[in-house]
Structure formats: C-alpha cells, structure tokens
Amino acid sequence: MNETTDRIEKQIEIDAPVSRVWRAITDHQEFGEWFRVNLEGPFEVGEMTRGAITYPGYEHVTMEVIVEAIEPERRFAFWWRPYAVDPKVDYSNEPRTLVEFILDAVESGTLVRVTESGFDGIPAHRREEAFRMNDGGWAAQVVNVQNYVQDNL
C-alpha cells in the first residue's frame, strides 16, 4: 500500500540465500534475464548502463540507469526515468527517480524490498501514468526475480 504518490514500495520473500539473490539483482546479465532488458555492460557506481528492453511491446525502449550504490549483499540503487517509453518524447530534461533494492536474510531465505521514489518531481502531465505503470511493473518484477532465482539455484 502506498501512503504517498511519491514512492512505490514492494517486497517479496525468496527461498534462496542472500548471496544468490544479490547476484540475480546486481549481475547485469542475470538482471537482464528476469527484468527483460539486454544491458550493454555491468553495473558500476557512478556509471550509466543501458540496454534495449526485451519485453514484448516495449522493444523500442532503451533503458538507461545511473548506478547510485552497490553495497554488497545489502543495497543496490540506481536512477532512471520512469515509464519513459514514447520514442517521440525527449525525456532528457526530466528528473530521474531512485530505485533501491534492499536485501535482508530471513528464516525463509531473503526478503527483497524494492522502493522507487521521486515521482513528485516527474512533470505533472505524466506523473500519474508513470506512477501507475511502474507500480504495476514492480509488482510483476518482484515475482519475476523470485521465479528467476528459484529456477536458477
């Protein structure tokens, strides 16, 4: 449940060790498998990585992220432009939102919390749709990473 329109929060428990979940989230090739993006290079703090989305219907979209933090087996964070999918629109002057993955060991394996914040900075004319689409997107992506990890232990 969201108490604000500025942040999306999702979580899921994955029946796998933190080290395995961490690798699925921070290795750019494994990330690409479950997220459905063909990233050109690894995640490095302060660097941008990009790649073509491979999800059907969004193949025209290039995902670009700037890595904010890699705190091994604990926190991975990046900046991106949410729901920037219209090829006729230049999103380069828009602010980015911050996506954070926080991992915690729990009895069943790993608790993954995903937070995306900063929607209040998105231009008003597209803020609601970006929030709605990413809210649904993260609901699906936490299941995708769970399935990916459990299928690839």
UniProtKB/TrEMBL annotation:
<protein>
    <submittedName>
        <fullName>Vanillate O-demethylase oxidoreductase VanB</fullName>
    </submittedName>
</protein>
<feature type="domain" description="Activator of Hsp90 ATPase homologue 1/2-like C-terminal">
    <location>
        <begin position="15"/>
        <end position="142"/>
    </location>
</feature>
<comment type="similarity">
    <text>Belongs to the AHA1 family.</text>
</comment>
<dbReference type="GO" id="GO:0008168">
    <property type="term" value="F:methyltransferase activity"/>
</dbReference>
<dbReference type="Pfam" id="PF08327">
    <property type="entry name" value="AHSA1"/>
</dbReference>
<dbReference type="InterPro" id="IPR023393">
    <property type="entry name" value="START-like_dom_sf"/>
</dbReference>
<dbReference type="InterPro" id="IPR013538">
    <property type="entry name" value="ASHA1/2-like_C"/>
</dbReference>
<dbReference type="GO" id="GO:0032259">
    <property type="term" value="P:methylation"/>
</dbReference>
<keyword id="KW-0808">Transferase</keyword>
<keyword id="KW-0489">Methyltransferase</keyword>
